[in-house]
Input
Amino acid sequence: MYGQPGFSHNTGIKKSILLILLPALMLSACPFKDLSPEPKNAAVQAPLYIIKSSGPEPFYFELGPGGPFLIPSPAEASLSPFIPWTHSIHISHFLPIRINEPDNEEILYAAVNRGGILELRNKERETMLYYHQGEETWDNYQVAAFFRHNNKPTVFLASERFFSVEEHPSPLSPLWALEDGSLKAITISAVNADKSAALISNSVFLGKDEIWYIQKSLSGQVSYFRTIDLSLGGQEIFAEQYMEASHPLESDSDLIPPLLSWALAEAGRLAQKPCITTVVSPDFPAKRLFSSFPAVSGTNPENPAGLAKVNAADERPSGSPPDIENSEFPLEISGYYRQYAPGKEALAAILFPDGRGVYCRSDGTLIKDSHFSLPSLQSTVNPGTNNGNLSEYSGNFVYTGVALLGNGSRIFLVASWEEQKDWNVGAAGFLLLEINW
Output
């Protein structure tokens, strides 16, 4: 399979271009009063929305071909036919980046499959949402990886050959970085600089050993490389080394920060079964996979294949349909972690597909944890509305990713959601909820 060692599903579908820059129209349909359009400034890109406060109610956004737009709830999402998740519009990855060490300022980015990059940033008492649309060619490729390079959010595009009827050649510009408010094609030595050998990069990911791994192909022959720095050339390795690096890191490993290890263990106790957690953090250059129970990354006598379906090189993305709880495979969940400095405050949040979650905070000496629950997406679907009794359009609404934005007394939880049916996705989007835990 192609793309980042680790599938990501998506949502949304092509419809007519949505006119989302009509704030008066949007706000007239919006019950939240503390959401306002940004005054236009010709010198800088204006955000789509400015969020001043959400109170106890979340803001729900749906993703469409033109970017995100506000909706009352997923029950009011567009009536979208289900298509394979690799082809659909959805949030495939979150990526928090720290841009100001002294003030611990962070920007939260999200890669939108077949779309572009979302940007969320705090400014005093306001949270601003931007959307950076990818070029037209993005519609032909899967967002296979999303990572930090030179402290800039960078997307890796790849051809998807599993569900596609029409095969597109590998993109001429597979790497795109967000610089100065616009997406620009870039070259990174270990990924796409070797023009003479005509090697095509199929995947790039951060392994459990915190080393980068790249899969390339030439005339049907596949080769594997690794490097400690993507700006440097890669060292060729065996396929077994590549696959081993793609497995989740056990939660009792010394390489995992103590608070994150605590949160993963608490999530495992809540789930009462092995879990694979996809964690994003401003302390990580890309998403990382962790197992809640050490045993799940090894050989299970009842499942000799081990993690064949959930390791980073061949995983169903976080947020599989709820019936995974009754399957033989570990439950896939999502998480967020950050720590400003050793001995300082640290935060961690773990989110289950059904909205249950674990939140942990440490002041450097003590750890406090609590359970929380986001609004049920399943209960928002009512008979007679968009997805009510139409079997062709009805699926499972699940949460697929989580991140935190802000610090001090103002923290937003950001969670991606999708309407899923088997390996297909209908509507998709994300919610923002101001928390006070």
User: Anything to note?
Assistant: Residues 23-161+248-435 form one domain. The first strand starts at residue 35 and ends at 36.
